[in-house]
Specification:
Number of strands: 8
Number of helices: 8
Largest sheet: 6 strands, mixed
Shape: flat
Helix content: 40-55%
Structural class: alpha/beta
């Protein structure tokens, strides 16, 4: 719950029985809010347009990345990468037997495109791990596929795994953490903050075969950066506009009553443990 922003609704899955709706609209000054009604509606509509533009440019950026992926894929020796992957699986899991139950997968994001640009917290995810593998290589060299095969092997062996996805192409994986083994694998260069073992998939890339696409890939990367710049600029505009919307709400909220509500909710939650 954020007390300094307009209300954001999250529907309860089990209303009444487990979940409940907390309506902060009970704590705003209706008359003062209605006096700014048209300005608020206009600002909210403008915000939607900023986000719509940002998402379109991010969608276009994804298409450009996918164009690079298939071009590089044509020059990859994925057979050798398969051999490397299963050697790595053997090194990580050793002789660990498959259990009668499967592990759980927690799927998350450790990075994002934001109004401030690219934000990433992979370094915090890798803290306190016994061993870190840094998977490097061009876009489309199979890094995500390698990570997927390894985390699925862990799940088969009854290990819980955290899987962190790419914000631009969520089907792709940036990082996996297997806490029970103290192991992390990531494509992020944040791994360099720690002791790590590097696995470079560019070793399986035929540069001569890729030469036919050199100019195309260079152009794609340039366009990709330009599209991201526009997307982030639109997100920044949306954030500034959102801050303006908050100025209509903050002065007209009774935060003392909300604070009293918050304390009451906490007391009730703590009483469940008694």
């Amino acid at each position: 719950m954020c007390l300094r922003t307009p209300s954001h609704v999250v529907d309860p899955k089990n209303p009444g029985a487990v979940d409940e709706i907390i309506h902060l609209g009970d704590y705003w000054d209706v008359d003062k809010m209605e006096s700014n009604k048209f300005d608020i509606l206009e600002s909210i509509e403008r915000n939607g347009k900023f986000y719509k533009r940002a998402y379109k440019y991010l969608g276009a950026a994804r298409l450009i990345i996918e164009d690079i992926i298939w071009k590089i894929g044509e020059a990859m020796d994925f057979g050798k990468i398969n051999l490397l992957t299963y050697k790595l699986i053997k090194d990580i899991f050793k002789d660990m037997e498959i259990k009668e139950f499967t592990g759980k997968v927690r799927e998350l994001f450790g990075s994002a495109y934001t109004p401030e640009g690219w934000v990433e917290y992979t370094d915090t995810l890798l803290q306190n791990l016994r061993e870190i593998y840094y998977i490097t290589g061009e876009i489309g060299t199979g890094k995500s596929t390698l990570l997927e095969k390894i985390y699925k092997e862990g799940v088969i062996r009854g290990l819980d795994v955290e899987v962190y996805h790419s914000p631009l192409i969520p089907e792709k994986i940036e990082t996996i953490i297997i806490k029970e083994l103290g192991i992390g694998l990531t494509v992020s260069d944040k791994a360099k903050k720690f002791e790590y073992s590097e696995i470079d998939l560019d070793e399986y890339l035929d540069r001569d075969r890729l030469k036919v696409y050199d100019k195309d890939i260079k152009d794609d990367k340039k366009v990709f950066d330009e599209l991201l710049d526009v997307a982030i600029s639109s997100l920044s505009s949306a954030k500034k506009n959102h801050d303006g919307i908050e100025e209509y709400y903050v002065p007209n909220m009774d935060f003392d009553k909300i604070e009293k509500l918050r304390k009451g909710i906490i007391d009730r939650m703590l009483s469940y443990d008694e």
